[in-house]
Amino acid sequence: MTLPVFRQRSELSEGWIATIAKAALRRPEREFATIVRNVSFRIDEGDRVALLGLNGSGKSTLLHLLTGAYRPTEGSLEIEGSRQALMNISLGFNADATVLENIYLRATAMGMQIGAIQPHIGSILDFAGVAEKAVDRLRTLSAGQRMRLGFAISTSVQHDIMLLDEWIGTGDAEFLKKARDRLQSRVDGSRIVVVASHNLKLVRRLCNRAILLHAGEIKAVGATSEVIAEYRSLMDSRSPDAVASTSSK
Ligand SMILES: Nc1ncnc2c1ncn2[C@@H]1O[C@H](COP(=O)(O)OP(=O)(O)OP(=O)(O)O)[C@@H](O)[C@H]1O
């Protein structure tokens, strides 16, 4: 998977005024970077798969490929079933539109038909606890309320395949319990779950298989416990700083 990257050349040694002037005037140079490569795997009905790897190893990029947000620039991807992606909780939101309008906007951004989200509007507003704010602008909601709304929309409908980027922190303690229960029921109802996570406790509890990514390539695929062991030895072979930042999550 190759993505365009934009690189701004900076020459800090010239002093800050010259640096800022150049940064403002010079167009960033576009280059292409390969983020994941030689990635080949199959996920079967009933599988709960963890994507493991150090920061920047390519887990989210691979999830974006699976959600359909990115198309592979080489190779192919075959997916059977409807997908539910819980990755970006504010996807499709527009702060100047009303709460109600944002439900439609986000549902559309998620690939849903207007008619498919319509029957769920009431329960989404109730679940998020913002029913009395339905015609208020989104920007008047608190950050927590917006997150609750995003979560409520994303999980309103059961799909076949669930794609998650970490567990998303979803507001206050009362909502967190509701969110966990909802998430668990969606996970239980999914034919396939793929979760990118650094939380090994969660991965052990949830997943029967795991894929370890390193520098954009697959380093291990197999039973969760075996792949976690590989991941641990990868972390142990890194500097103490890297170990602390990844194993503490
Ligand atoms: N849109 C993009 N354009 C250019 N480079 C990107 C883009 N998205 C990710 N990258 C780069 O691709 C690499 C992998 O990023 P990715 O987000 O997939 O990693 P990750 O394994 O999910 O990391 P983390 O555990 O930190 O969330 C990183 O080096 C990142 O800088």
Automatic annotation (TrEMBL):
The keyword Transit peptide appears for this protein: no
Record-linked Gene3D superfamilies: P-loop containing nucleotide triphosphate hydrolases
Keywords, comma-separated and alphabetical: ATP-binding, Nucleotide-binding, Transport
Sequence ranges assigned to domain ABC transporter in this UniProt record: 20-240
GO MF term list: ATP binding
Any Pfam family hit: ABC_tran
Family that this chain belongs to: Belongs to the ABC transporter superfamily.
Database matches in PANTHER family: TEICHOIC ACIDS EXPORT ATP-BINDING PROTEIN TAGH
Entry protein name: ATP-binding cassette domain-containing protein
